[in-house]
Every structure is written in C-alpha cells, then in structure tokens.
Write a structure and sequence with these properties.
A hairpin with a 2-residue loop joins β2 and β3. This protein has 3 helices and 4 strands, in the order βαββαβα. With 146 residues, the chain is of the alpha+beta class. The mean pLDDT is 85.
Length: 146
C-alpha cells in the first residue's frame, strides 16, 4: 500500500445499547463513507471501557475505531452524522501519515487462545489439588489403621 494519508475516526457509543445496534452503527457509518466516495480500510469494535471522566452522565462507553481513506471532504459528512446521533457521545478523526498498519492475527482468536490456556491451567491445578487431597486421605487412612 502506498504512503497516502488515511484517517482514523474513534467514536464512543452509549454503554447501554445492545451489540446488534453497535453492529448497525458500524455498518451505518461505513455506508456513509462509501456513499461519499471514501474507502473503508478497517472497522474494529474495541469494546466497552471505563471513561476517564463522565460524558453525559455515562461512566463507560463502547469504543469503535474506523479507518478510512479519501480526499478529506467525506469527514464533514461522517462527523455531522455522528453529531446528530444520540448514541454517539464522543468522536474524533485524526489524519494519519505513512502506510496503513498491517493487522496482526485475529485478536478474538488470540483472546480465545489465552482464555483456553487459562482454563487448561485452572483444570491442571484443580487436578493436582485432587491428587494431593487423595494422597492426604490415603495417609490419614494408613495412620488410623496403625
């Protein structure tokens, strides 16, 4: 990919909206960009996070990152749509220079792998504890027989 500038828009949605609605917002803003002639490079839901300070009485928000490329005039349309939406509590668009960063392996898969490893570790510890308890019980039984 060339070193053509691209834009990243980070926006925060209200924390009380369901996940289906979040997906609808992501596709809505991607469609708006496509209609204005911009190219959507990447769209990521970053999840619900605690805010550094309250925004409209919300202490949490759902973060979404949208990377796009165009001539710059499309940003006004995108931000106007976000400003008019009651579900968007904050947004910011930043112009990025240089090549678009290559995404690593799917973060969801990495997260699932970490969770599975953690579960396996917990299962292993539980198994070891059962074995230790069994040995202790056997030792007690031997002592009682004496």
């Amino acid at each position: 990919m060339s070193n053509q500038p691209y834009y990243e828009t980070m926006y925060i949605l209200r924390p009380d909206i369901p996940e289906e609605e979040v997906d609808a917002h992501i596709s809505k803003y991607s469609d708006i960009l496509n209609k204005t002639g911009a190219e959507v490079l990447d769209s990521q839901m970053r999840g619900k996070r605690r805010l550094a300070y309250s925004i409209a009485k919300h202490k949490e928000g759902i973060y979404v990152q949208l990377s796009h490329k165009g001539d710059g005039s499309h940003i006004e349309t995108l931000e106007k749509s976000m400003r008019l939406s009651e579900d968007v509590i904050r947004y910011l668009t930043v112009k990025q220079e240089g090549p678009f960063p290559v995404r690593k392996a799917n973060k969801a898969n990495d997260k699932n792998d970490k969770e599975k490893a953690k579960e396996n570790a917990h299962e292993k510890v539980a198994e070891e504890n059962k074995e230790k308890a069994k040995e202790i019980n056997e030792e007690k039984a031997l002592e009682e027989k004496k």
